[in-house]
Amino acid sequence: MESLDDIHPSRFMLDLSDNADYLFMRIEGELEDGDDKTYYDFDEAEYDAERDGASLSSTGYEYYYKEGEVYECLISMDSRKCIDINRYSESQNEGNPNDQDDSLEIRGFVEALLESYSGDEDEVLYQMPWTEKYLIEIKNRKS
């Protein structure tokens, strides 16, 4: 992961929303028993968290995919503005002796994306054809 410090986060995110593939959004909530729960829609999260008795985090995330990289936009839930952006790419793990799988970071996002689509691989592939190689890797790992 690389933090993009030399950019204006809100403007960069606007560009992503116009020129990249939207993946998903997520916000974490803490249930009364201390367990965490992930919500995948900011607007519905407030209602669902109240129903679940969960306290939502003050920040959420929106994810975009563009040219082999995933962008993670940190969103302030008070203002609903982007306050920071991180970039994940396959090449970031290259040459790291501790990482033997260069696509590990992006595959993790595809796994979360698959979860947000309730495990429907066909729908994920239909909506985002670029996920095909990652879905194959995920399927092979489970076999």
Explain the layout of strands and helices:
Elements: E1 2-3, H1 9-19, E2 21-30, E3 36-39, H2 42-52, E4 55-56, E5 59-66, E6 69-76, E7 81-89, H3 104-116, H4 121-127, H5 132-142
Antiparallel strand pairs: 1-7, 2-3, 2-4, 2-5, 5-6, 6-7
Helix pairs in contact: 3-5
Our Rg estimate from Cα atoms comes to: 16 Å
Strand content: 25-35%
Which structural class best describes the helix and strand composition? alpha+beta
Please tell me the overall pLDDT. 86
- Percent of residues in helices: 25-40%
Shape: globular
Question: Count of helices?
Answer: 5
What is the β-strand count?
A: 7
The end-to-end distance, rounded to whole angstroms, is 28 Å
| Main sheet properties | 7 strands, antiparallel
Indicate the low-confidence ranges by residue numbers.
Answer: 93-102
Order of helices and strands: EHEEHEEEEHHH
List the domain count as a whole number.
1
Key attributes of the depicted protein:
seven-stranded antiparallel sheet, 143 residues, globular, alpha+beta
Short description:
The protein is α+β, with helices and mostly antiparallel strands and 143 residues long. It is built from five helices and seven strands; from the N terminus they run βαββαββββααα. Strands 1, 2, 3, 4, 5, 6 and 7 form a seven-stranded antiparallel β-sheet that branches.
